Amino acid sequence: MAEDITATCDKEVLVKIVKLAQTRKIKGIEGEWKDFLQSHDKKFGSSLSDPSRRSIDILAAFVKTITGEEDVKLITNLVKLHENYKSMEFLMKNSQHPESPEQKLVRLTMEHPEYLKRYSFPSYNEDWVITRVGKISKVLKSNAMVAVDCEMVLCQDGTEEVVKVCVVDQNMEVKLDKLVNPMKVVSDYRTDITGITEEDLKDVSCCLSDIQILLKKLLKPGMILVGHSLHNDLQALKIDHRRVIDTSFIFSFLDRPRHYSASLYDLCKLVLGFELRKEGAPHVCMDDARATMKLVLAKLEHGFDEPIAVPLKDDTPESDLTKLLIHKLPATVSLKELLKIFPDMDTVELQPFKTSKSNQSAFAIFKDPTWASKAFDMLDGELGEDSGGRPQKLVSVELKGGQNVSFFVRKMTSKEFPIILKKRLAQVEMKGECKRQKADKSNVCEHIKEIEQLQHKLQEKDQEIKSLQKILSSLTRKHGL
């Protein structure tokens, strides 16, 4: 019953419950929120419907009228989520106990500028599992960690579903290694990335709810969950666990923006000194889970507090330099309507890249890198960078129906002059230098020939002068002069 829930709720959480009830059009015994106000407040009625401006008693009274089983479960989840937030907030700010190295990494994760945006889940929904943070005193004594990695496929309805889950503890012992049936029609197994085929899932009966039960047993109060870009895994698993370490958040990088995050592959090379997988090879879920845990253990042992130098890559395919990536584009927008953002580019081609339920992305392909760069420069939009330091612009366009949509257009390389073009320029300069050297050598040869000719003429003149001097001497003796 919702009446039991309200006993421990403060006004902040009651306001959240009522706002959720408004959004979901949840009805109590006396109707929706405005209906309730009409009958319980003769003075203002529903004219003052903002929950934050109502008393705690009015808010609690409305919540107590909600009796629907699914609605009560939704409210229970929201209360549990609020309690977890408060516990973690207290742990971060008010604890008098010394901070453990593991808790420091939890704090680094939560202080990252991208944390709130990426870890805000709709976990009050009925198909989500919310783990308990637990009592602060017990949490502070626990530094146990497990690392998780998932592989996801794209389903026909546009959602991404989990098909493989691996979990290891800090001793690298396997805690979970399961294939998962997505229970949906799969449109793309992404085998080149996941390494999973339709045949692999043929006789798999384990579903997401089974995985949630197994993970909930592992994620006891105080347990620290480790992952790389962990929010993606939690979103797919539909699990809200607050005490986390995200390895994409805990390292800093030289000459990179604060929100820059290196890939797991790059971090393994830069921090651990080994290659996670061969170039082009599919992911191995268990290897990725172990690599993530190794990164945390390396951070705990060696610190890595100084920014890590990330070498400029020169592995961008030359064909990619002719492209711009259009992403975070609403799935309802026709790609043809995007051509208007490139009004002077007659040769641009739009190629779909990835589609989800709500968003899509595409490549704008030009005839050469120069045209791609020129098209980006001409775009009217707010200039910024993505998490990899690549320049992108927030662009808006008006559709035929008058609707305005916004999306990002991004370059395929960092803002530094592309390495491939640098190499090409160097080659051109080298050729030019060789030509200059040849030209210089040719000029020197011509000058030498001229000098030799002049020297030869001087020698001839010297001979002539000597001959004339001999004649003059002979005439002088003959005439007795």
Automatic annotation (TrEMBL):
Pfam families reported in the protein's UniProt record: RNase_T
Keyword annotations: Coiled coil, Exonuclease, Hydrolase, Nuclease, Nucleus
Gene3D superfamilies registered for this protein in UniProt: 3.30.70.330, Ribonuclease H-like superfamily/Ribonuclease H
Location relative to the cell: Nucleus
Domain Exonuclease: 144-305
Biological process, per Gene Ontology: rRNA 3'-end processing
Gene Ontology CC, one term: nucleus
Statement: the UniProt record of this protein carries the keyword Cell wall biogenesis/degradation: no
Transmembrane segments annotated in the record for this chain: none
Domain of life of the organism encoding this protein: Eukaryota
Coiled-coil annotated spans: 451-478
GO molecular function list: exonuclease activity; nucleic acid binding
SUPFAM superfamilies noted in UniProt: Ribonuclease H-like, RNA-binding domain, RBD
Known function: 3'-5' exonuclease degrading single-stranded small RNAs.
Family, per entry: Belongs to the REXO1/REXO3 family.
Protein name, entry field: Exonuclease domain-containing protein
